[in-house]
Amino acid sequence: MKNKLCLVSAKIGRTELPLGFKLMAACLFVGVVLFSAPGYAGNDMKLLKINSFENLQIQALVTGTVFDENGIPLPGASVVEEGTTNGVVTDFDGNFAISVENPNSILVVNYLGYKQQKIPANQEKIVVQLEPDAAALDEVVVVGYGTTVKRDVTGAVSSVSEDDLNQGAITNPLQQLVGKAAGVSINQTGSEPGSAPNVRIRGITSLIGGNDPLVVVDGIQGNMDLLNQIPPSEIASVDILKDASATAIYGSRGAPGVIIITTKKNKAGKSIVEFSSIGSLDFIPEQLDMLDANQWWQQAQKFEVPPSTNHGANTDWFNILTRTGATQNHTVAFGGGGNSFNYRASVSAILQQGVVINSNNRKFIGRITATQKALDDRLALTMNLNSGINNTKSSVQSIGRAAFTSNLISNAYLMRPTDPVFDVDGSYYTDPNVFQYINPYAVAEEVVNEGQNNNLFGSLNAEFELLSSLTATWFGSWRKTDNMTGFFLPVGSTVASAIDQDGFANINNNRQDEKLMNMSLAYKKEFENHFFDALALYEWQNQTYQGNYLQARGFFNDIATYNALQLGDLSRVQPGDISSYKNDRTLISFLGRVNYTFMDRYLLTLSYRRDGSSVFGENHKWGDFPAVAMGWRIDEEKFMEGDDFFDQLKLRAGYGVTGNQQGLYPQNSLSLVGAAGVTYFGGSQITNFNITQNANSDLRWETKKQANVGVDFTMLDYRLSGSIDAFTAKTDNLLFNYTVPQPPFPYGSIIANVGSIQNRGLELALSYELIRNDDLVFTLAGNGSLVDNEVLNLSGSINGVPLNTNYVPWGSNSFLIKGKPIGTFSILQHTGKDEANAETVLDRNGDGIIDQGIRSPDRVQAGSALPTYNFSINPTLQYKDFDFSMVWRGSGGNKIYNNLRQNLSLMENLGKSNVLESAIPLGLFTTQYGSDLWLEDGDFIRLENVTVGYLMQPDYKYIESVRISLTGRNLLLFTDYSGLDPELNLSGGNGFGGDMGIYPRTRSLALGLNVKFN
Amino acid sequence: MRLRYIIGLMLFSLMVIASCTKVDEEVYDKYPADDFYGSPEGADVALAGVYAKIAGNWGGVGYAGADNGWYDLNVMSTDEQVIPHRNTGDWQLDFARLFLHEWLPTDLIINNTWNWLYSSIFSANLAVEQLESSDANIEKIAEAKVLRAFFYYLLMDDFGNVPFYTENNVTVDQLPQISREQLYDFVVEELKKNIPHLPTTKGGAFYGRFNRWAGYALLAKVYLNSEVYIGVPQYEQTIATIEKLEEGGFSLHPGGASDTNPLGFSYYELFGDVLPEDETILAMYATANIVSRNILTVRSLSGPHAQALFGYSGWNGTIVPSAFYAMYQDQDVRKAQFKLGPQPGGVEYTLEVNNLDNPGADPFAGVRNMKFYPVDPMDGGGASNDFPIFRYADFILMKAESLVRLGREGEAKSLVDAIRQRAGLQPLTTNPTLEDVYKERGLELNWEGHRRQDMIRFGTFLDSNKFRGASQEFRKLYPIPTSALDANPNLVQNPGY
């Protein structure tokens, strides 16, 4: 009786599939008749059931329950009669009932993450308690278009599970990852509500091509904005693909790395209701030391500033523009279902009140994910739907008098402390004798700057087992984003442009429509010592961008703000007041991957992707991205038998070619004509046109070639585990907006692929369980990375035009210099000041002229804006029901050009603005230079996160558990940097590494409550 | 069996896939360049695009009217105007540096001027190409070529030895940096060849465009400064060219008292909204916030003064040095443009500026100028006055100067007197000297962008003044901006920098 059938065992049915079924599968695969499937499925199911009932009658029924290590029932554990295909799965209460062929047979109980147990079947009521599998390396790792287990991974992948994510009043998933993965640097510049941190994986590999990793959420691909649409509390795990052998599967989008987010799903057979709520108070830890009213007037007199500039008040401008902020994050989640159907739904609210007045962000996200199995569990349909609303009220981002433009809060520093906030008549104070005077309090109170972002994305995944070894999958996703910003700058704001125009208002609408569809075949087969896991996939993606912009000026009053542009003075319409656009891009890909394992110890991964993109130039429409990786599980070798030192030891090596096309926008390769305002010709005003860009039919993706070697190990009886990786990556065909001589080019720049840069790095991640006993677990984890960046070459030629692009300006006094890291400072050296208090610098070549040319011999190289090291130390402690964790984080080796300090240090501005206290000893009146006087070290160590939690499991039937936590974020900062915070824009883009003034980075204290209901 | 279905399935899938591999680019919201300029309408647009370069707007582009561009570079280095740093903290120091003859190759204003001129030449080259390839009539082709010569003339005047090209599809190695002499020959030849093709129409569709008379005006300017450019005087040619220009029938606009003009004299209509056809040869059109702008008055007046007059705050910028102001006699109608003493808004301007840079000028120090009395539409960002690039009074004085230089002072007297009498002054008692002509040019043409050229031609540009000693010879040419040298290492910097 070999063909024993069981309700939950579908294996045997496979051999008897009717022809119609296969045809249907074919239809399913091409996504044509997806929803006609149930008709066939129904017949087939009935047939199988009859068959199984016939066989059941002669069986002995064995029942039992499976528990976890804490005695909690485990639903979904598999129980199989050894040596047969006869098996069942435990129900919601951990119970199972299995009819065995032989009463003396052995039952094998398996549950993911637990050690296998074998139990004799000849017992009355079987109780199985599973032990967790200490070999946690077997956790599931998502590797892009599929999963594998950690011990089979051949590339450099960092995985962070839910329990390891940072806690607190989190507003963006990236904040949960700070300090958690080696080689993944996450930087937050200021705490503006709604602002997202910046992430760089293994350094900067592109100049204008974009360094943002690709984000994949449950198969949906997108940019960093997609992360902002994921409720932090709904994340189950994050996998970060770092090296090319892992990311090559994403081809022309894989070069900057890939962040894969898997959201929480409901466990089969379990109903849950969870509520979590976290609220924090946010404070400004530090502010710049500016002169007070008395100090200012003293200095003003010293520098012959006329008394007419002293308006006699004593105002703390920074103080009146700031407040204590608050952040809240609430989520209700629930789910349920059985083996063939389950779902999870959640609603989250993330509310932020900024520390600068009139800035806040409100985000609401609802999501639902549901899985239905059918056709004897051979078809699995998973639907995902996520909808979010994100409303932001921002302070003004860029404002200022002619000479200095920054955000609103930095403008508060500029204010003379002797200026009153209000005039005697109660209106906002302005000084008509200062050119373009701005009262920042008036701006904060009067300007309307609102953003409303609605987004929706959904996906359907249909997975069908054609054969036991062959699965066909169809996946489709659609993401829509509608973004509206409304802006109103009334006369009352005191801003000159608003006064000139009697107030102006504009509305900016942007729409994104991103569609993706892929079809794949996956083949898994094990025979003897060989294991194959292969994938073939076709993918089509299209992104369409549309938008419009409208502006009106000349409003009688402030009532309608931007809500009724028609109330403006329509006779004052100007060029640029009306505009709209539409463009799109299509990416088509073919990819294949083979994972081959021999003798469970030799691993080989081969992958290949071919991408065709509409944004590439005519001569390079298609690109190829191959990768190879190998792994060797040394601990499985005979010669390691009896080795007590290593529990697990694996060597990995990989090489791959990846691409980056973020920096290419639709139509970049074409020569196009656009409107350029209005001109006067032929006796009337007519629309003017000009060429908006140069054609470049050779335009293509950036190519990154990366080699990686790594070792994963576990030792000391699984107490110490870690990975070490070393890599070298070279980006060729570097995209750049190259400066070309004004003749023959119209704008002096052309986007082209010339040049290359290199990153070499070393990464280490360690976790050590110092103490483990029944009451106490104390783990010390940490990671660190070193990156050495070098611009190899920037020169080349385009259409026969030689480009000499060495020493390309890349920020204040920072450059792209061949053989040096990106953003290397080449700068004049401060020596002091002359008798007129003007700054003097060193004439290094002694020719009597201070040459400020970019290749000037008077400049000296003084480090780079790019950090060279990053580290994080992460102790965690679990004592009975208390838990405690800390994240210390640091980075450095970089320099910061402190533009803000320079602007706030020159006495020439004293008559109209305030200066820093440190400007007094400096006593500089003016400077013609940007010297190393303003260049500072960017090293810092920050106590990023401290969390204490207490878990209660009250003896109350409706409540499973309650956890209370207290989190402090950004509690300590150690740095020599004189500005507000050394964690600045480290994006690697033009102008990075400078400090133009930031929204304050907050220090926060949060109280959290997490309740799980029964 | 199974394998067969699977293979069939795969083949079918491949067929489906093969039909979705199209990755061509579609353009929805712009015109492809080739199609666009290939059409006759496109060619006209290319020509209009060159005039758009003259108009400019913000950001240091355009001939005059906005800031930080060609106009500032050519007037702030002279004795007629400067923006001092104020001891109240306003105004960066680069304007004062121009006046003090301490400008640097990195200065924004120099860089802006260079970039503006070369982007204009690109547009002119494009217009010539497109017009020729679309078989446009010869008048339009000639107009584009004269426009290009105009920009090269400005480059020759400010920078001397510069890169030269007339076709856009050339590579850098085919781009020679030619000498001032070579550029002079090109400009003269190009103008002589093309001026006769230009239409003779004045005003209407040709307001603000190069007609034949504007062409001759440009050529006369080149001849007048020939001695500076190539060391060879061309005064007879200057006179002959101006006489051709006079065939266009120009006359001096009446200058007397006027009830309608805010400054009290019809003379100032020459600097108003639509410039009068009798005297204006070539105008730059401006309508604030639409096409270019004219900031010259709001930039000069203090905040409360402009607020009281126009309802918009002034910038408290440009002043007229007292020595220049002192040249004007009280009865001169041209003195009405200056503001000194108490003003509406509770402001009192004082004559002297004591310091330009450190600690800077007192808030209300310095004489202000309202030659371009704002016309609507205006706001705090500027007004809509058109700007005279060439007007007849200039050419009368150029003719007088050429005559004096040729020793024909007697013929020059009536010319200088005509200018003086229009301004309400007595005729000269003797035949004019070079000094008389130079002074009259200063009085008549101040703030119109001619002063630097005049001071160099009359040898006064390097002279010391209240704020600086005599400057060095190399300051007669501006440096090629550092950014241009950085971008094209083949360029040779002008001596001295």
Largest interface, chains and sizes:
A-B, 104 and 102 residues
Mean pLDDT of chain B, as a whole number?
92
Largest sheet of chain B: 2 strands, antiparallel
User: N-to-C SSE series of chain B?
Assistant: HEHHHHHHEEHHHHEHHHEEEEEHHHHH
User: Could you give the count of β-strands of chain B?
Assistant: 9
Structural class of chain A: mainly beta
Dominant shape of chain B: globular
Oligomerization category of the chains in this entry: heterodimer
Q: What proportion strand of chain A?
A: over 45%
What is the residue-mean pLDDT of chain A, rounded to a whole number? 87
Q: SS-based structural class of chain B?
A: mainly alpha
Highest-level CATH class of the domain at 136-263 in chain A: Mainly Beta
Rg for CA atoms of chain A: 32 Å
Can you count the helices of chain A?
12
Low-pLDDT runs of chain A: 1-57
* Overall CATH architecture of the domain at 38-198 in chain B: Alpha Horseshoe
Strand order of the largest sheet of chain B: 2-3
Explain what you see.
Chain A: Residues 150-258 form the TonB-dependent receptor plug domain. Chain A: One of its GO terms (cellular component) is cell outer membrane. Chain A: Residues 412-879 form the TonB-dependent receptor-like beta-barrel domain. Chain A: It is a multi-pass membrane protein. Chain A is mainly beta and 1014 residues long. Helix content of chain A is 9%, strand content 48%. Chain A has a 22-stranded antiparallel barrel. Chain A has a 5-stranded mixed β-sheet with strand order 10-15-16-13-14. In chain A, helix 8 (408-414) packs antiparallel against helix 9 (440-446). Chain A starts with 18 loop residues before the first helix and ends with a strand. Mean pLDDT of chain A is 87; it is low at 1-57. Chain B has 497 residues and is mostly helical. Chain B has 19 helices and 9 strands. Chain B has helices at 2-18, 33-38, 40-55, 70-75, 94-99, 108-133, 138-158, 180-194, 212-224, 226-230, 235-246, 296-300, 303-310, 322-325, 392-405, 409-422, 434-445, 451-457, 482-487, and strands at residues 31-32, 162-163, 177-178, 280-284, 338-339, 341-343, 347-349, 368-369, 387-391. Among the domains of chain B are: 38-198, Alpha Horseshoe (Serine Threonine Protein Phosphatase 5, Tetratricopeptide repeat); 296-369, no CATH class. In chain B, strands 2-3 form a two-stranded antiparallel sheet. Chain B has a two-stranded antiparallel ribbon with strand order 4-9. Classes of the chains: A mainly beta (1014), B mainly alpha (497).
